[in-house]
Amino acid sequence: MRAARHRLLPELGDAGVERLASAHVRLAPSSPLAGEIARRFLERAEVSVDEHGSAGPDEPPELAYLRGAVLALDHVARITGVRAEPLPRADLDRVLGLAEGTTERHGGSP
Amino acid sequence: MSARVLLVGAGGLGCPVAEILARSGPTLPATRLTILDDDLVDGTNLHRQLLYDVADVGAPKADTMAAKVRWLAATHRTPLAVVPVAARLVPEDALARVRESDLVVEGTDNLASKFLAADAAHLAQRPIVHAGVVRWTGWAKAVHPGTSACLRCLFEDLPEGRVETCAEAGVVGPLVGVVGALAAGLVLRVLRGEASVGATWTRVDAKLGIARTVPVRRRSGCSLCGPAAALAELSAERYAPRCLGVPLSSGVVMSIKVRIPTPLRTLTQGQDEVLGEGATVRAVLDDLERRHPGLKDRICDEKGVRRFVNVFLNEEEDIRFLDGLDTALKAGDALQIVPAIAGGR
Prior knowledge:
- Chain A has helices at 13-21, 32-44, 61-79, 90-95; strands at 24-26, 48-50.
- Chain A is mainly alpha-helical.
- Chain A has a two-stranded parallel ribbon with strand order 1-2.
- Chain B is built from 10 helices and 15 strands.
- Chain B starts with a strand and ends in a 6-residue tail after the last strand.
- Classes of the chains: A mainly alpha, B alpha/beta.
């Protein structure tokens, strides 16, 4: 999606944009919708994405959307060299009214 | 009776909220979602606004979002009715619009609109869910009027000087999805009647790897919800000069289509038509410069429009024969940038 190319942060510069465009990730999402959301965000950042074949069962849409977006965010941060560690999940899940201990299913690799 | 949700802003934050509501299925309480946004889909939106595609560029966001959300709701058997309204939330009618809703969801891209929505929600005694995001940081908070900290408890007032919006400063697309999903989660909790939902504030700093939800208390000196609150009505002046530079008022901030000639499309990522906001040609070009750095310099010099460039209004009138860069624009106007062309072989 070439229309996405310019809208990344100016601070990433052309080099960051090029790193994204040449990156390839294989998703291991927590659910089919989480995988779909992660794929949509990554593809709009021009990152090439493998099909996600190992997703778990369906989740509530707000949780799946959140986990998919976090997964995509972690990939973008890692590819652009901004941050290597995944974003902590517990406080985010808590916003959705979920009990602690429901955050283990995130996955993904570059 | 349906819950009435007013979504202010159909952008990067509004997209996840609307999509998640539409995907919620039959367990969602019957809901009528009013989508309030006067903007058009721009190519620069697409990396973070997943409900829109390239084919939607130039179309009204409210209508486009409504059509897609209706389809999603039907697919998931979600009892969600959708009403698009192509307008901004402005001081003149904010209170009336908010009073017609049971819950406000605010995902706008400027502080003036955020404070306006917060003030209107409090004065109308309606709960509101706020969210904001720029660059690598974002936040989300729900507010129950009178019981939880409001926006003015957290941030007293609009800052002096202009504040960058995400369209200007840039934003990481997936972070908008993260914060939008958090806002959607808060919306669902409010709809379920969870009173504790307003007790915390969630912040995400994706660059530092921080995602925290912290308790926040009401501020006793808050001008909106404190015991000696002075803010009792919505005047346009309160939201205008410090943040936007122009009054946040009906018809003042408009999206104007600008036709870009081939030699300048390297600055617009190949787009032959882009959108700029403003009530004059000068304001639109300034806005385009923020979105497409270098573009204004190719059109203007210190004296005005460059001698070898023409700017036409609605393909009819050269703005040199109108009021030049101060030519006033109205909704539906379009500008064409026409450079001199050399050669002929």
